[in-house]
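chain below, 178 aa
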Amino acid sequence: MNGKVPVTEKKEAAGSEKNTGRRRRLVLYVIFGVLTTAVSFAVYYAVMTAGRAALGIGPDESGARYVAVYTAAQLISWVCAVLFAFFTNRAYVFDGRGGSIPRQLSSFAAGRVLTLGLDYVITLAGAYLLARVLPVLTDVRGFNLADLGAKAAASVAVLVCNYIFSRWFVFAKKSERK
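prediction:
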């Protein structure tokens, strides 16, 4: 042996490092995605609970007052989750510290606005459908499980869409965009 590493071994090592980086990024994204979802759920539930109590909205009510509280809960939980996700993704998942925070944050927020619409539609339609198909879910020991179930389904769809947007548009290195 001449002490040189064959080219194929170098390529295999580089590929292995790349796969390890991808796995690490996916694992961290899922961890911070779960934490972001927890932030969103906690804020959403707190606003829904407080809003329903303040306006005297019952667990099976779905009129205009419910939609107003629901909309406020969605928007407030979204802002809190987006800020949490941006800073954790930037620092720990995609190593975006080299980019401009205003540019990255505006791109990140724009992508999140798109998935906010997706979240809104899936959660509202899902809660409505679950409440109609399984009305028992609207009051389980004071919890509206139709709301929470629909929010969980929406969160999965949003998590996948947000990863794709963040990875390939917001935090992508210039060499990856070409």
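The chain is about 80% helix and 0% strand. The two ends are 39 Å apart (CA to CA).
thats it, cya
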